[in-house]
Amino acid sequence: MEKFEFISNTAEATENFSDSLAEKLGPGDVITLEGDLGAGKTTFTKGLAKGLGITRTVNSPTFTIIKEYQGRIPLYHMDVYRLEHSDEDLGFDEYFEGDGVTVVEWAHLIEDRLPKDRLTIRIEHQGDTKRKITVIPIGERYQLLCEELFGE
């Protein structure tokens, strides 16, 4: 499985990167985000929202689990951290197969419910503001998207 990497030195650079990614996304696209607390998952999602034309403030849906935002296409922002030991069905398939882009933070906790094809993004601390963003395309659509995004 091919991996693509981007080094971000600031939160603004992370947002700009995800803003560029958003321009290539369409309905039914699924992005999974992994990273420690404070790594920049919500910062990344803010950039996606900007790129999707969303003007509302984006923040982590930790207590609500799913937040919906309207832009040129909807953004469904999920934080499934609190579902680690839950069998609750929140209708994930309706979001994954829906008319918007779905972002899932802590996605490894619902691995068995995720679609086969998706874009996995890992954000790792490399210092106070520096982050390594690893993008792993799973499926042909996401492989082509990454090749275009990274200019390969």
What would you say this structure looks like, in words?
The chain is of the alpha/beta class and 152 residues long. The protein has one domain: P-loop containing nucleotide triphosphate hydrolases (Rossmann fold, 3-Layer(aba) Sandwich), CATH 3.40.50.300. The chain has four helices and seven strands. The chain has a seven-stranded mixed β-sheet. The radius of gyration is 14 Å and the shape is globular. The mean pLDDT is 88.
Cα shape: globular
Biggest sheet character: 7 strands, mixed
- Tally of DSSP helical segments: 4
Number of domains: 1
Q: Looking at this structure, what is the CATH superfamily? A: P-loop containing nucleotide triphosphate hydrolases
Euclidean distance between termini CA atoms: 15 Å
Task: Give the percentage of residues in beta strands.
Answer: 25-35%
CATH topology: Rossmann fold
| Highest-level CATH class | Alpha Beta
Give Rg in angstroms: 14 Å
What is the averaged pLDDT score? 88
Question: Which structural class best describes the helix and strand composition?
Answer: alpha/beta
Helical fraction equals: 25-40%
H/E element sequence = EHEHEEHEEEH
Number of strands: 7
The residue ranges in which pLDDT falls below 50 over 5 or more consecutive positions are none
As laid out across the biggest beta sheet, the strand order is 1-7-6-2-5-4-3
CATH architecture: 3-Layer(aba) Sandwich
